[in-house]
Amino acid sequence: MLPTSTTISSKGRILDLSSPKVMGILNATPDSFFTGTQAGYVENLLANAEKMLEQGATILDIGGASTKPGQKLIDPEEELRRVIPVITTLANRFPDAWFSVDTYNSLVAKEAVMAGASIVNDVSGSRFDTQLLEMVATLQVPYIAMHMQGTPETMQQNPTYQDAVWEVRDYLRLLLEDCNRLGIKDVIVDPGFGFGKTLEHNFQLLQQLHTFAILGRPILAGISRKSMICKALKVNPDHALNGTTALHMVALQQGAHILRVHDVKEAMEAIKLWELLRG
């Protein structure tokens, strides 16, 4: 097993992930699956960003293309129109914060980093845009490598694995090899909860999340208000906070370094309690 790297660097700054951090979700989309993050105006996102940072978020993840199940991919130009004004405004307003851009397009990644983003968060695992990894290497920023089976439009149409944990982990291993070959130094791995997985697959991945430490990279857990909670508890995303917090504690116990969340305050409380349990 490789020793896990617990720091990432971008634009001359270093972020220490040896203690868990919270990534707040800012959706610059008109069709977010969770109504609490639907915001069509920069002013609303600015207020949400300020609240998340005050509550303890270290990273804010800004996305302009919804990737909920059944969603079609959007044009990069439309994605740019949504995210660049937001990133520019937030980077000017909160210069000490870390911002990631949630995109699968190389052009959007480039423009977002130029506007102030410090991390590229790619749900596609570089499959939708073959130039994305080369762009990240050129930009020299950290890369979040996520696993998805299929596309957002098709991913929940009978996802199938022989061994979900092994296949997801092996996919990320191969993606890490591509990153290393291109010179991308800082990579965070994300098993992609809810992206081409059944309820059973998701819970298998969470139960075995600690095995992803073999990859030697920080682990991101994106569980917040997702279908694995909603289906299990028979609630909609608006009523999935309690289940989210319960599974965040499990993710922390399984070795997650970053929690990607809609609700920063509750995630920070989970981290505090986990740290007390750990002693």
- Note the gap between the termini: 25 Å
- The CATH topology annotation reads as TIM Barrel
- The SSE string, one letter per element, is EEEHEHEHEHEHEHEHHEH
Principal-axis shape equals: globular
Structural classification = alpha/beta
Compute the average pLDDT.
Answer: 91
The value of Rg in angstroms is 17 Å
CATH architecture: Alpha-Beta Barrel
Strand content: 15-25%
Please explain how this structure is put together.
The protein is an alpha/beta fold and 279 residues long. The chain has a single domain, classed as TIM Barrel. It contains nine helices and ten strands. Helix 2 (76-93) packs parallel to helix 3 (106-115) and helix 3 (106-115) runs parallel beside helix 4. The protein starts with 6 loop residues before the first strand and ends with a helix. Residues 32-40 have low confidence and may be disordered.
Q: What attributes does this structure have?
A:
10 strands, two-stranded antiparallel ribbon, 9 helices, 15% strand, alpha/beta, globular, 279 residues
List the helices and strands and how they pair.
Layout: E1 7-10, E2 13-16, E3 21-27, H1 42-55, E4 59-63, H2 76-93, E5 98-102, H3 106-115, E6 119-122, H4 132-139, E7 143-146, H5 164-182, E8 187-190, H6 199-207, E9 220-221, H7 227-233, H8 241-253, E10 258-261, H9 264-278
Helix pairs in contact: 1-2, 2-3, 3-4, 6-7, 8-9
Structure at a glance:
The chain is α/β, with parallel strands linked by helices and 279 residues long. Helices cover 41% and strands 15% of the residues.
